[in-house]
Amino acid sequence: MSPSAVVNKRAVVVEPETTGHKNVKTKSVLLHRHIHYEPSTVVAAKGNYVELNSGQKILDATGGAAVSCLGHGNQRVKEAINRQLDQVAYCASLFFGSSAGEALAKELVDGTNGQMARAYIVCSGSEAMEATMKLARQYFLECAPAQPERVNFIARKESYHGTTLGGLSMSGHVGRRALFEPMLLGNVSRVSACNAYRGMKEGESTKEYVARLAQELDDEFVRLGPQTVCAFVAEPVVGAALGCVPAVPGYFQAMKAVCDKYGALLVFDEVMSGMGRSGTLHAWEQEGVVPDIETIGKGLGGGYAAVAGLLIGHRVIHVLDKGTGAFSHGHTYQGHPVACAAALEVQRIVREEGLVENARRMGEVLEKQLKERLSSHPNVGDIRGRGLFWGIELVRDKATKEPFDPKDGIAMALHEKGLEPKHSISLYPGTGTVDGKSGDHIMLAPAYNTTEADITLIVDRTTAAIEDFFAQRS
Ligand code: PLP
User: Fold this and answer.
1) Helix, coil or strand: residue 165
2) What whole-number distance in Å separates Cα of residue 93 and Cα of residue 97?
């Protein structure tokens, strides 16, 4: 079968999240996403606002792509970057270390209260997932005795783990995979994510739901051959693929028990949900489960540098230590000193100013206000999230939970509505990911230093944009 035939069998859902600007013919030579159109240019950004070249100021309710945890234009981070540039901008991590890299790793490992042993710093969440896949494989090769047959990964259907071929192979996001399906790795299979709104059966208790999902994972191990599985990979709070969906209580403990039963690693992808976003520094703190490897990104550098990483547990480091003593992987810009200095300052500010606690407190305010204002809207199916990470699922029919047709691009159109001058708010759109069965959603991910007044403004503008959008459609 030709690759195009494979692609054509599936509904190609164009994931629109990084555009959403007015369709203006472009003379731009910089390729954003669409060849013929360009987004508005941001000319300034301060605090919770970005300013466009038109002069319009947009309330950044999403921290870009759930990144800007301190807001824009932080002076302390700027100074830390400048100091690092004066000292050393770049050194090859193959040959040298940097004090910024060392200090960042210490800050990160200390932040896990001894649960993690080492930090590995790369430039993007996708790179972090690539490194994780190779590290998991290498771990089993260096176990005594070696387990070379462990080549498979079990991920979840509703998930996003990166745009590179490894990360995309891990992802279940149908729209993002579609064009590249024939090129993706065949050693990743998927089970259902934990999604109370869409996954729980009528009358099913939380305990029964968890037991059912644990059985599904167990069955998948057995189907693959338990001794062939490297790791189970999951986002503690599902981001782009579902829109801020946390697991029900006890779910991750049950999943870990299955991994333990078969000796597989547990990997948490906290690129979006971690580093304070969910109201604890690590989302796993709320699950009573510590992963063997955790990927981090977005909130790590807060947008001040392209930086992401891995936190690696003692089990994995111990085996490498006794084995080859080296992780067989590397990038030119890994552990980049300027990126490390920026991330270190971001993390120090988050810790010194108690911003994770603020994210938790403000998250409660955001939840309350969103539910008060939007729960009764006929096209709002579900409002869910943790910390300052909230998703609103949009449905055609509230009673049946019938989603909109992904081809209608509802979330994207709502994002564009938010950008209109009368609303001036940035909302993070996403569209159904599993053969159109999950609905459109928008996500909110404000900065951790957001105040109650900011939250009220975000909810006011979000509510107005949603009401205006659906009023115009009816
Ligand atoms: N993992 C998760 C959970 C993500 O949300 C993302 C990006 O949205 C990635 C990985 C990929 O990160 P990046 O876009 O930095 O490569």
Assistant:
1) helix
2) 6
Closest residue CA from atom 5 of ligand 1:
272
Name the residue with the closest Cα to ligand 1, atom 14: 125
Determine the distance separating the centroid of ligand 1 and the alpha carbon of 430, expressed in angstroms: 14
The finding on whether 171 has its CB within 6 A of some atom of ligand 1 is no
Structure tokens of 289?
A: 């489960």
The response to whether residue 297 sits with its C-beta less than 6 Å from ligand 1 reads: yes
Residue pointed to by tokens 């490194």: 131
Q: How many Cα neighbours within 13 Å face the side chain of 473?
A: 16
Please report, in tens digits, the pLDDT of each residue of the chain (474 residues total). Answer: 333 333 333 333 444 433 444 455 667 788 877 777 777 899 999 999 999 999 999 999 999 999 999 999 999 999 999 999 999 999 998 899 999 999 999 999 999 999 999 999 999 999 999 999 999 999 999 999 999 999 999 999 999 999 999 999 999 988 889 899 999 999 999 999 999 999 999 999 999 999 999 999 999 999 999 999 999 999 999 999 999 999 999 999 999 999 999 999 999 999 999 999 999 999 999 999 999 999 999 999 999 999 999 999 999 999 999 999 999 999 999 999 999 999 999 999 999 999 999 999 999 999 999 999 999 999 999 999 999 999 999 999 999 999 998 888 899 999 999 999 999 999 999 986 655 566 799 999 999 999 999 999 999 999 999 999 999 998
Q: How far is the CA of 251 from the centre of ligand 1 (A)?
A: 23
What is the DSSP annotation of 175-211?
HHHGGGGGGS-SSEEEE----HHHHSPTT--HHHHHH
Residue among 280, 246, 252, 278 at smallest CA distance from 266? 252
**Residue 195, both tokens:** 């999604």
Which among 342, 387, 285 has a CA at the least distance from the CA of 76? Answer: 342
Indicate if ligand 1 lies below 6 Å from the C-beta of 235.
yes
Q: What per-residue string of b and e applies to 358-397 under the rule 16 or more CB within 10 Å gives b?
A: bbbbbbebbbebbeebbeebebbbbbbbbbbbbbbbbbbe
Q: What distance lies between CA 308 and its chain's CA centroid?
A: 12
List of residues 6+ apart from 128 with CB closer than 8 A:
122, 162, 271, 295, 296, 297, 308, 309, 310
Please state the pTM of the whole predicted model: 0.94
